[in-house]
Amino acid sequence: MFKVLIIAEIDKNVLNTSTSKCVSCAMELGETEIDILIMSDDCSRAATAATNIESVNRVLTIEAKHNAEPLAAVLAPQILEVAKNYDYVFGPSTTFGKDLMPRVAALLNVGQVSDIMEVQSPRSFKRPIYAGNAILTVEVPEGLIVVATVRIASWKEAAKGGNANIQDLNINIDLPAHTRFISLNSEASERPDLQTAKKVISGGRGVGSAANFDLLYKLGTKMGAGVGASRAAVDAGYVPNDMQVGQTGKIIAPDLYVAFGISGAIQHLTGIKDAGTIVAINKDSEAPIFEIADIGLIGDLFEVIEELTQKL
Amino acid sequence: MNKILVCLKRVVDYNVRVRLKPDNTGIVTDGVKMSINPFDEIALEEALRIKESGKADEVITVTIGNEDTQQQIRTGLAMGADRAILVKADQVLDSLAVANIFLSVIKIEQPLLVILGKQAIDDDSNQTGQMLAALWDRPQATFASKVDLSSECVTVTREIDAGLQSIEIDLPAVITTDLRLNEPRYVKLPDIMKAKKKPLEIIDIDSFGNDLTPKIIPKNWSSPKSRSKGIMVDNVDDLIKALKDKDLVG
Ligand SMILES: Cc1cc2nc3c(=O)[nH]c(=O)nc-3n(C[C@H](O)[C@H](O)[C@H](O)COP(=O)(O)OP(=O)(O)OC[C@H]3O[C@@H](n4cnc5c(N)ncnc54)[C@H](O)[C@@H]3O)c2cc1C
Ligand SMILES: Nc1ncnc2c1ncn2[C@@H]1O[C@H](COP(=O)(O)O)[C@@H](O)[C@H]1O
């Protein structure tokens, strides 16, 4: 029986679905006892949601004012106190988990397996390297706690229907004051979240301006799709950074991905390889995006968007 | 003296389409273009700008690797680093070992700031900076897209999934760079000549006495699943029909 601790990701007191995907990954290990750790200044809502995930044994909470914002330097020493008693410590491979989990691993004096896409055996895991152009199987030697991030685009949410108990923890240790939260600038949007949306449409440099992105937002609303972008579109200031899809942006796996005016650089493609159906619209018939697209259309993106917005 | 340490890794250039060795024991690197990891170039650029603004006195690069890395180290010196350290290692190291070696260098150099890339584009691990900050027991600001240094602390804007987060951390500290932090300068020919005279210190990895036993062991390399060949359609009506056939639009 392996004991697994999953570090929950919480946005404004709501449990992020990445947590449930970590549970799916943990279930692949074999016989497990899975606990979820919630750290926030108000844990109740996320904790209740976590009790509902199947196969979860206990939901642990550390409710404190200093946990209001997820600062790795503040969270990691608290996690260390809890993690010592586990065989595995998992977190999501989102910016939250990428920031935090290596800090936890180093405090435990172990390595970190980044971006688990497949569990080969309880100590061996597949992960993408070179922007997803190769897959590496890594092994963690016996006797070491396995700290890992879970590549969320590779895993489905675990089923609901669990009934775990909630247990409040009291961690009394000195925490560093050297790291202070100032602000979060989040562009509020009613559109579906990129990492969970079933459909995503994206624009690249070809879209040409921030104003032109409105055409994508309009089509997105019509289709019920999230809207993403290439790095070039973000760099040019057409859209905020949180819309970037790719090796260094978000890795997503929607059922449908439609790319408008995106050439298809490997760094972009690595972010969409797990999509169900990839559609590419580009005026250049030689664009590399057509090599991986399931459906390609050579044409002007503005004309295509207009026609789709009318006809869908 | 205020020093900034920049970690420079040599990696396969981002434009190269990597290929697996036929026996699945790694990636073909013979005859392949190698470069400074793009994020590390950004880290060096940021350090140079901080120095040029008068807030630091010396920029030192640190590289762990074999002799071949000297090529990238010289490029770093040509960009403007004052001196370089090569920790010579021929074996494959995991990130915790790399972080421990950086910590040993930190103990000697006592820098104000250590800047790394957020990820090396070969292993895509995204963990060395965070591990280093933990071992050093100092603050970390990962995925930085803006860095504002004052005498005792740094304000860093971080690119996170939810948007842009701003945090303040006390010095000394570790920062890891994101792509939009800056655009690295081009190296000019005279700088390449000048760089040849800049100091490059070579230290043998064993001289630090760190425990380098791997805690993550690479076992096998394979190709990703390839996607099946797609179709081309001629117009929007055919596109909509194809999507309807797959039940992807109503
Ligand atoms: C370390 C590193 C990490 C990176 N990470 C990422 C990442 O996470 N995500 C990412 O996306 N990129 C990333 N990149 C950048 C990547 O290499 C490409 O530069 C980028 O993806 C290009 O964006 P693009 O396709 O929008 O622009 P371009 O390559 O300029 O392509 C624009 C396309 O639009 C088409 N077009 C123009 N006008 C029209 C029109 N009217 N109708 C139809 N088509 C039109 C053109 O034919 C062209 O194919 C990274 C690069 C590096 C070095
Ligand atoms: N061998 C190395 N030499 C110099 N810097 C390194 C080395 N390995 C990792 N780094 C630094 O750590 C960062 C993150 O790497 P990684 O955690 O492997 O993705 C890189 O961008 C470099 O700045």
Provide the residue-averaged pLDDT of chain B. 96
Which term fits the overall shape of chain B? Answer: globular
Distance between the amino and carboxyl termini of chain B: 66 Å
Q: Which hetero ligands occur in this complex?
A: flavin-adenine dinucleotide, adenosine monophosphate
Structural class of chain B: alpha/beta
Query: Could you estimate the helical fraction of the residues of chain A in percent?
Result: 25-40%
Could you describe the largest sheet of chain B, including whether it forms a barrel?
9 strands, mixed
Order of helices and strands of chain B: EEEHEHEHEHEEEEHEEEH
Give short descriptive properties of this protein:
heterodimer, A: 312 residues, alpha/beta, 7-stranded parallel sheet, 5-stranded parallel sheet, 30% strand, globular, B: 250 residues, 9-stranded mixed sheet, two-stranded antiparallel ribbon, 6 helices, 13 strands, binds flavin-adenine dinucleotide, binds adenosine monophosphate
Explained architecture:
The complex is a heterodimer of chains A (312) and B (250). By secondary structure, chain A is α/β, with parallel strands linked by helices. Chain A is 26% helix and 30% strand. In chain A, the strands form four sheets. Chain A has a seven-stranded parallel β-sheet with strand order 7-11-6-1-4-5-12, with helices on both faces. Chain A is globular. The N and C termini of chain A lie far apart (51 Å). Chain B starts with a strand and ends in a 5-residue tail after the last helix. Chain B has 250 residues and is of the alpha/beta class. Chain B is globular. Chains A and B meet through helix 3, helix 4, strand 7, strand 9 and strand 10 of A and helix 3, helix 4, strand 7, strand 8 and strand 9 of B. Flavin-adenine dinucleotide (FAD) sits at the interface of chains A and B. Flavin-adenine dinucleotide sits at the interface of chains A and B.
